[in-house]
Amino acid sequence: MNLILFGPPGAGKGTQAKYLVKKLNNFQISTGEMLRNEIQKNSSIGRKIIDDMNHGKFVSDDIVNSLIEKTLNDPKKQNRLIFDGYPRSLSQAKNLENLLAKTNQNIDFVFFLNVDKEVIIKRIENRKIIENRSDDDLKTFIKRYDTYMATTKPVLDFYSQNSNFYEIDGASEIVEITAKIDNFINV
Ligand code: AMP
């Protein structure tokens, strides 16, 4: 089973992805985590992207798409993918469609965790204390949220017409969101 967790930054995609990885024995595809790893390793990719990430800007499609392509081509991970933070633009959504077709895979479920900006701001303030992410300060968050509204939200139109698209109130408690997802995937 492949599924996409979709929603604004701070919607709880990562939390649900980690739960689903355990439940389904799948793999979390968090482009944000992959990119943070590159920065930690101080790799050539890491050095290129650090400024964009710290300012809440998108990393280039070339870099992100190549990380995704590697994952989709990995036979161990095929049909066991939980996308968290990808696709984030229409061009990435189209790239994903092409890669899925090439590797004979489908997306079984798209879950949209819908949460208001004010609720997320409260969460981000807590996450900053716990995880100490450099892009979780308020100014960067607002930039990331605006980018989401302008560039990522239109991707919803791309998916929302499909029968495998489900909107979930992302302001609910974590366990309630998990229960709703469980109910939809029904395994
Ligand atoms: P996240 O952990 O998903 O909140 O992502 C953290 C940051 O990584 C984002 O603000 C972007 O700078 C970068 N990033 C993550 N995923 C993508 C993506 N699909 N396309 C472009 N940039 C991304």
Overall structural domain count: 1
- How do the strands of the widest beta sheet line up side by side? 2-3-1-4-5
Classify the fold: give the CATH topology. Rossmann fold
- What ligands does this structure carry? adenosine monophosphate
Instruction: Kindly report how far apart the N and C termini lie.
Output: 10 Å
Integer average pLDDT: 94
Residue windows where pLDDT falls under 50 for at least 5 positions? none
Number of helices: 9
**What CATH first level would be assigned?**
Alpha Beta
Rg value? 16 Å
Number of separate strands: 5
User: Can you tell me the overall shape?
Assistant: globular
- The portion of residues assigned to helices is 55-70%
- H-E string: EHEHHHEHEHHHEH
Class from helix and strand fractions? alpha/beta
The name of the CATH superfamily reads P-loop containing nucleotide triphosphate hydrolases
Strand residues, percent:
5-15%
Task: Summarize, please.
This protein is an alpha/beta fold and 187 residues long. The chain has helices at residues 13-24, 31-41, 44-54, 61-73, 90-102, 117-131, 138-152, 154-160, 174-185, and strands at residues 3-6, 27-30, 81-84, 109-114, 165-169. The model has no long low-confidence stretch (mean pLDDT 94).
Please characterize this protein's 3D structure:
With about 190 residues, the protein is of the alpha/beta class. It has one domain (about 5-185): P-loop containing nucleotide triphosphate hydrolases (Rossmann fold), CATH 3.40.50. Helix content is about 60%, strand content about 10%. It has nine helices and five strands. The protein has a five-stranded parallel sheet with strand order 2-3-1-4-5, with helices on both faces.
